[in-house]
């Protein structure tokens, strides 16, 4: 207690008892001779577990068995008598670690009146004690019905706050807002509400300063994503609007108030605000109780808070409530984030709050921001330092990798499970698909707004059955850059170089530029690393970027021979890789899409755009097939050979065949039909069973409606009936347009033929839709490409 300012005056020592925090530091201290558990005045017995602890302690003291629960502290904690401190019955709370830490002493005077003394231990705590003194004196001059606050007594020492106890008779705690809490909130709204432009209020000015200071921190442990979301929320608020404000306690929680028979007794008003957003205290009670005590999911906390706010204060417009909630989040989160920034040691509650704030901000921004981007914020924020290394990071900021880019991370095996669990529980995710391989997990996240994110979590750096790099070494030498952990430069270059060279391609331009922008010394280090490890010498990054098949084969041989493991380990990797390939055949992620339409309807352009969309947004491998599976070659290939037959087919116009023979048509159709029957098994085995998407440019429907295009003339009833045995694509789109539009594009058909074929296709799709409900048959008028792609995208999104 010497640091608290007391001066010893006599040699008589006081033996102490105490209780420690989970980290071993002292929490409460009291004289060993005390017969009443005065330290329980600091305890929040709101939950059943807490109430059981309080009851057990009181019973032990009543039976004189407190020594069994709380042994004597070592003699170094003993205290001699001190000037101005005659009482021997007191309890000291050493304070919550952090920026606002202060010790609090509870004692009773000779008349039995109980007092509390607050003793700040940091400069910020000193300001808080001064602010609380001012707030208490201000409230003393204001009549109150539903609440009361302590009285300020004479301070025993400069800078301390000496106040009376405000605990009423039959006092109790509550873990939820009761009618007495709500009566206090209603009184504040009725007595202190004002309306004024937000920009003119002290509250907004302090909030603005806090957000600005938080964004300007050069180095901080406060997560980047959290700060980015705060900034987005700040920019969404119009400071020129008129806002409703009222008095707020500022830290209104179950542990900062007592419930009496007919009122609420408030204390710890160090964050009191004369003008705060409406229901600031209601929001704070729910958030603190939910995140720190009940440990509920933030989404549940938010839902319960909104339900109570709307039920108990129905006269408040929803727009005002929404604004007040956003202002609370901005002010509360930015204030405490700045406090945690300067706090050296973070206790568990800090991480609980950071995680909870992140999700609350995500839910608030969900209607206005891409869910994929919000997930990136929260996911990267959730990674502890060096828990995951972002591979091939080329964007200026890893939190913004591009609208369709995926994320590759090297993580430990335990972190893989934690990351998958985090993504599954993300509040805005619609579904999560996890693809397992021997060395990694690929997690595909589909969000409620239709966006998509793919994350590869690698716990081994393998290429097929070959270990290309030591993952533990990469993790050990990783460096921190722009809020994330990335590989050391030499490991980054080596991994990128191996990734593309072993796949038979050059380094893409973006990767090449990234490394060429490094200093000459850094480039030399990267090239020297390759020379040392692989005995390959390159004169420049550009020379190393260009794939050389002969050298790539040497690298493969080197990796097989120097993979750092023995024969059995290599065989085990080969077995794992083979098992991964085998199981990939049974992933039901692939499907087939067909596009039909007369020539000139715009199929080729739409197919190209859809292919790009599937590959970039949904990270799907896509195969485009023309008309049929083509397991069997085109008929003319038997006469001219495959290459010449394909050349002749491309050079000739459709619908120009002169075949009029029924037998010839049957033979030709039977050949193509056999191709469909055999091909559907090949397409499944080769593509869709492995998660790939097959796009058909035309499909079997041409044989039903437009057989002349394939030089076939058969009854439609026959070809339509045989469709029963043909594989049904999941999605079937018929693109059509007005005859004049099609004729401007291509003049292969007459206007009358276009109208007739369009009618036949639309009729057929209507019939098939009723006959085969497991597939979708969708006619689309392709007069606006963007609208067409948007509609097709909705159907694809539902399937994916």
Automatic annotation (TrEMBL):
<dbReference type="InterPro" id="IPR027417">
    <property type="entry name" value="P-loop_NTPase"/>
</dbReference>
<dbReference type="InterPro" id="IPR011009">
    <property type="entry name" value="Kinase-like_dom_sf"/>
</dbReference>
<protein>
    <recommendedName>
        <fullName>Thymidylate kinase</fullName>
    </recommendedName>
</protein>
């Amino acid at each position: 207690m010497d640091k608290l300012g007391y001066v010893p005056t006599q040699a008589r020592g006081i033996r102490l008892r105490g209780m420690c925090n989970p980290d071993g530091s002292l929490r409460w201290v009291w004289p060993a001779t005390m017969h009443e558990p005065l330290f329980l005045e600091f305890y929040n017995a709101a939950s059943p577990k807490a109430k059981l602890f309080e009851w057990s302690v009181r019973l032990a003291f009543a039976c004189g068995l407190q020594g069994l629960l709380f042994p004597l502290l070592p003699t170094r904690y003993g205290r001699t008598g001190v000037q101005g401190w005659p009482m021997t019955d007191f309890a000291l709370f050493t304070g919550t670690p952090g920026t606002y830490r202060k010790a609090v002493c509870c004692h009773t005077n000779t008349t039995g009146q109980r007092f509390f003394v607050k003793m700040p231990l940091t400069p910020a705590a000193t300001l808080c004690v001064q602010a609380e003194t001012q707030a208490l004196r201000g409230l003393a001059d204001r009549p109150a019905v539903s609440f009361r606050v302590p009285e300020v007594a004479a301070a025993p020492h400069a800078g301390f706050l000496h106040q009376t106890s405000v605990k009423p008779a039959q006092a109790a705690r509550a873990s939820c807002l009761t009618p007495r809490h709500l009566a206090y909130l209603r009184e504040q709204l009725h007595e202190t509400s004002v309306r004024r432009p937000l920009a003119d209020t002290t509250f907004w000015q302090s909030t603005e300063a806090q957000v600005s200071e938080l964004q300007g921190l050069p180095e901080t442990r406060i997560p980047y994503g959290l700060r980015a979301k705060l900034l987005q929320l700040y920019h969404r608020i119009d400071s020129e609007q008129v806002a409703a404000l009222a008095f707020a306690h500022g830290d209104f929680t179950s542990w900062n108030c007592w419930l009496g028979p007919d009122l609420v007794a408030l204390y710890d008003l160090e964050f009191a605000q004369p003008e705060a957003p409406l229901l600031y205290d209601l929001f704070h009670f729910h958030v603190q109780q939910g995140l720190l005590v009940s440990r509920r999911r933030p989404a549940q906390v938010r839902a319960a808070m909104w339900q109570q706010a709307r039920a108990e204060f129905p006269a408040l417009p929803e727009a005002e409530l929404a604004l007040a909630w956003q202002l609370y989040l901005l002010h509360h989160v930015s204030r405490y984030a700045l406090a945690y920034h300067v706090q050296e040691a973070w206790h568990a509650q800090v991480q609980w709050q950071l995680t909870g704030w992140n999700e609350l901000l995500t839910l608030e921004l969900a209607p206005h921001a891409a869910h994929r981007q919000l997930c990136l914020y929260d996911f990267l924020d959730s990674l502890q330092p060096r828990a995951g290394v972002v591979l091939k990071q080329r964007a200026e900021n890893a939190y913004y990798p591009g609208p369709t880019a995926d994320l590759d991370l090297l993580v430990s095996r335990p972190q893989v499970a934690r990351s998958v669990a985090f993504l599954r529980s993300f509040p805005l995710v619609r579904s999560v698909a996890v693809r397992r391989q021997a060395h990694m997990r690929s997690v595909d996240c589909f969000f409620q707004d239709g966006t998509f994110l793919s994350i590869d979590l690698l716990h081994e750096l393998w290429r097929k059955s070959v270990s290309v790099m030591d993952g533990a070494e990469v993790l050990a030498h990783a460096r921190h850059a722009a809020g994330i952990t990335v590989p050391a430069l030499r490991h980054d270059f080596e991994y990128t170089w191996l990734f593309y060279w072993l796949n038979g391609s050059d380094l893409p331009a973006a990767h090449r530029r990234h490394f060429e922008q490094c200093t000459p010394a850094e480039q030399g280090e990267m090239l020297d690393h390759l020379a040392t490890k692989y005995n390959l010498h390159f004169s420049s990054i550009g020379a190393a970027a260009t794939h050389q098949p002969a050298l790539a084969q040497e690298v493969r041989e080197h990796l097989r021979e120097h993979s750092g493991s023995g024969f059995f380990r290599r065989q085990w990797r080969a077995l794992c890789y083979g098992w991964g390939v085998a199981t990939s055949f049974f992933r039901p992620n692939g499907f087939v899409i067909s596009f039909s339409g007369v020539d000139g309807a715009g199929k080729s352009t739409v197919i190209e755009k859809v292919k790009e969309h599937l590959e970039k947004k949904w990270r799907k491998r896509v195969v485009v097939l023309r008309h049929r599976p083509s397991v069997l070659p085109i008929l003319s290939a038997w006469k001219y050979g495959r290459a010449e037959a394909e050349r002749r087919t491309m050079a000739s116009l459709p619908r120009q065949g002169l075949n009029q023979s029924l037998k010839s048509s049957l033979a030709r159709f039977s050949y193509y039909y056999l191709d469909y029957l055999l091909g559907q098994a090949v397409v499944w085995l080769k593509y869709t069973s492995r998660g790939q998407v097959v796009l058909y440019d035309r499909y079997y429907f041409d044989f039903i409606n437009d057989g002349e295009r394939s030089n076939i003339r058969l009854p439609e009833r026959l070809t339509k009936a045989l469709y029963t045995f043909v594989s049904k694509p999941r999605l079937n789109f018929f693109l059509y347009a007005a005859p004049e539009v099609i004729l401007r594009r291509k003049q292969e058909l007459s206007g009358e033929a276009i109208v007739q074929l369009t009618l036949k296709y639309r009729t057929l799709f209507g019939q098939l839709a009723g006959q085969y409900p497991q597939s979708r048959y969708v006619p689309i008028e392709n007069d606006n490409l963007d609208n067409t792609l948007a509609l097709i995208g909705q159907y694809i999104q539902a399937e994916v």
